[in-house]
Structure formats: structure tokens, C-alpha cells
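Schema walk-through. Below, the input block comes first and the output block second. Nothing else is stored per chain. Lengths vary across the set, and this one has 180 residues.
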Amino acid sequence: MATATPLRISTSEYLRTSYRPDCDYVDGVIEERNLGELDHAAVQRALLRWFMEHERNLRLIAYPELRIQASTTRFRVADVCVLSVSAPREQVIQTPPVAVIEILSPEDRVSRYLDRLEDYRKMGIRNVWVIDPATRRGFDFSSGSWIETASFADAATGLRLDLAALFASIDDALGDPVKR
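--- output ---
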């Protein structure tokens, strides 16, 4: 059985092309991202709301679906990218953000996700976090290992995000799935 060779494009072509939804660019190849399901969107929405509520105190701002240039040949689109309000204003992020938060979808494969998370770490992003909506678990990948955690924290900024409270806010907004 033959497999199709992915079509390679230049970095400049990737950067001037709009994709809906946006795609990653890895060593000349466009990679689609898994998203679009309610649980994924609900977690993303709750994260953005939480950061908006704490933006002034933490001096952090969160953006959804922002392109990050992890290396010269790798661009990733983070589910949520957290920047310091004093970070340079870059249309495509090249300065390491304070944090990236990825939200798993049922179709995500661990091997492909490891590449994404390692790209963030190699870029120098100090907080690389993952949320699994299906299991309501969080993982801190900042050290290069999947470390389960009940909250995400960054001592340098004072950020502390409790995942139980985040999921409670989702349940309040959508209704508790157990009670439906």
C-alpha cells in the first residue's frame, strides 16, 4: 500500500496563507490540528474568561489560536497562549510566551503531541500545560515529562489556575454533564 508524500511549501507561503481552522507548519509540511468539539471549546472559553478576569492583577493576557514560531522551520498554533503585557507586540510570536496551554481532543495521538510540546520547550517556553477535557485532568509538561497536576502555577508571575474551579465554571455555564 503506497502512502502519499505530503506536499511541502515554503515558510513564506505558510505565513501568507489563511487556513480555517489554522494549521501548524512543521519542516515544510502543513499539519491539521484537532479541535471543534464542545468540550475542547468549553475549556478554551473558560481559560480565556479566567485570564480576562485576572489580567490586571497578573499582568498577563491570553490569546486563542495564536501562531508561535518555535524554530525557523516550525510554527505551532497554541490553543491558548499566555503573554506578559510587557511582551513585544509580534503578529507571529517569536519571543517565548509565559505559558502555552493545549487542550486535548479525542483524536490526538501522544507521539504527535510530544513533538508539539517539545517544540514549545525547545523555544524556551517555561510553562507548557495540557488539559484533557474527557478526564478533566491537567498535566504540566514544562520539565519534559507528563506530570499530573490539579493546578497550573507560575511563581514568576503569581499565576495559579485551579483546574477544579475551571471545570466548575464550565459546569455552571453548560450544566453539569452528570446531572443531564
